[in-house]
UniProtKB/TrEMBL annotation:
The keyword Repressor does not apply. Keywords: Membrane, Transmembrane, Transmembrane helix. InterPro entries: DUF2512. The lineage of its organism: Bacteria, Bacillati, Bacillota, Bacilli, Bacillales. This is Membrane protein. The keyword Membrane applies. The gene is yndM. The chain crosses the membrane at residues 7-27, 33-53, 60-81, 87-105. It comes from Pullulanibacillus pueri.
Amino acid sequence: MQHITLLLVKFITCLIAFALGLDLFFAATFTDILTFSLLVTVISYIVGDRIVLPRFGNTTATIIDFLITYVSVWVFGNILLNSYLQIAWGSIISAVVITIAEVFVHRYILKHNAIEEGPQARQSHYKQHVDYGTEFAEESDFKDKK
């Protein structure tokens, strides 16, 4: 049930963001907004919330969500929309609005453990604090060639 609620919140957020970014300032159709919302909701939920958030945390997942929104509107906007200016500003405005909302969605997910811990949520091998070490030794069978 939590997954459906999260998907619904993400979808409504995307609808509002794309209505602001694409329809309010530019002439995008409701079908374009609905298509972008559905696409970004599904990709953002799978990649951002199910894969990146449990492994790398809120900041990285928020950055990934921004990039997913920006790139998806940029790429698919070239196909569906006519104006280059519409695509550029629409993707920036939409990505910023969705990123602001995703911060709160990610906090809710992390606070209420809405994403189950499974084998895919194990800690990655990424080490945030790298330990640098140097080995000092002498050659044991060094022969003097004098």
